[in-house]
Specification:
By secondary structure, the protein is of the alpha/beta class. The protein has one domain: 3-Layer(aba) Sandwich (Oxidized Rhodanese, domain 1), CATH 3.40.250. Helices cover 47% and strands 14% of the residues. It has a five-stranded parallel β-sheet. The N and C termini lie far apart (71 Å).
Length: 132
């Protein structure tokens, strides 16, 4: 009886520990503009502007690529990215990039950073934009 109880408790503890670990290790992390700048300074992250080409042409963050999330080609273009490398996504306000981050997570990307407030937050802080 004692061995059986011990086994049940061990299985319950292991299952609980594993489920808590999965919940704490989110693939998607919201970052502020300052945190994004710090990430870029530490490592050469792939920056993806998921706005439309017209929005992208009006000004973007230096070093980023434009993959229009609303485009029919988006899912094909994503296949050219390495899902094992961390990626930073942003749009105008954060809504499209949030949807994009969830899509990338389903595609197996290991770490996705999403700019909170989008490029609007970046601009409001007086951070620079470049013309592509």
């Amino acid at each position: 009886m004692t061995k059986h109880l011990f086994s049940v408790l061990l299985i319950a503890f292991t299952t609980f520990s594993w489920s808590c670990k999965d919940q704490n290790q989110s693939v998607i992390e919201m970052v502020t503009a300052q945190e994004m700048m710090d990430l870029i300074a530490q490592f050469d992250y792939k920056l993806i502007d998921v706005r439309t080409p017209a929005e992208f042409e009006s000004g973007t963050i230096e070093g980023c690529y434009n993959l229009d999330y609303l485009s029919d080609e988006f899912s094909t273009q994503v296949k050219n990215l390495d899902p094992t490398e961390p990626i930073i996504v942003f749009c105008k306000s954060g809504k499209r990039s949030s949807a994009c981050a969830k899509f990338l997570e389903k595609q197996g990307f290991v770490k996705i950073y999403n700019l909170e407030g989008g490029i609007t937050q970046w601009i409001n802080l007086g951070l620079p934009l470049v013309l592509p």
